[in-house]
Amino acid sequence: MRFICKGIFCILLVSSCVTAQSDGRSLFERVQPSVVTVISYDETGKVIRQGIGLIVSKEGDCIVHKLLVEGVSRAEVRTSEGQTYAVIKVVARDSLSDMALVSVAMPKEAASPAKVSKAVPKAGDTVAVAILDESSRQRLIEGTVSNIKRYAVWENVEVAVPLPARSLGNPVFNAKGEFIGMVSFQSEGNRNFTAVAGNRLPNMIEEMLKSRSGKRPKSSDKAAGPLSDEEVQRIASGVLRGSAKKRVQPSYPSQAKAYRITGTVVVEVLVDEEGNVIRAKTIRGNYQRPADVTEGEARSVIPFLEKASEGAALKWKFKPTTISGVPVRVIGTITFRFSM
Hints:
Blueprint: E1 2-5, H1 27-31, E2 35-41, E3 47-55, E4 62-65, E5 74-78, E6 84-94, E7 99-104, E8 126-132, E9 138-144, E10 147-151, E11 154-158, E12 171-173, E13 179-186, E14 193-197, H2 201-210, E15 244-246, H3 254-259, E16 262-271, E17 277-289, H4 295-313, E18 317-318, E19 321-323, E20 326-328, E21 330-338
Antiparallel strand pairs: 1-17, 2-3, 2-5, 3-4, 4-7, 5-6, 6-7, 8-9, 8-12, 10-11, 11-14, 12-13, 13-14, 15-18, 16-17, 16-21, 19-20
């Protein structure tokens, strides 16, 4: 199987070692204190996921990909110095970028928050991505930005690198060592990946940090029960908090069935004060095609999958979202899966 993605952040691998900065330290040495390895476990204590996260506050709060903390029994972060601290809870999540803020039982002296950039990179700029290599060691790979595409409130930055298969939630940095975005997902076939970036990134992180409780977890604290963000107030991007009262699945387009195209479509929806979906627009997709189907044939049927998904999304009904008891319009996303 081969994957093709809409709005892809694609790159050529340039180097695993970034050139030294003016203070004599390499870019990796500058960003490494903020980078953490995230390890997730099931109820038996078995490691089920690994990825990269980023410290964003003096209290040790970290930005991670939601898949590293969703549906797991517990999770922990490991710093570049080898210290391990428990993830206590999911504080907030941005539904349009898949970034989540987690509270970590990290002492203040161990926290080295990253610098966050307000600037979106331009075509021709060099960016670096933090990864875990085959030995689970943190490394940086770099590439050159080739294109920028706007999706909803975020920018999808197209670069040029194949990421290791084990990568998940990789933070992306500019040449100054500032955090500019995070890899959202990658395909398994050609190893392209999609990352989200944007000048609203600092505001999103600030909003998420404000939503935590005033009590800071201690390094001796442990996560209480399975990690979940089901009760989290989703504050970023005008978030959809009302649960769905009516769900409609899209019909599988005959054109896509004929070519045996499978995958997922993510639809952004605008929900009014009564919980009705009044606008639906596809913002990204991740598709598979059989080996005997050409990429051109696959791309020709993707619009049918998107149209079917948008039509189904318009039929959904949600419980109204309220702020201080007042119903408001909100934005959210619905993910539809197509499988044979």
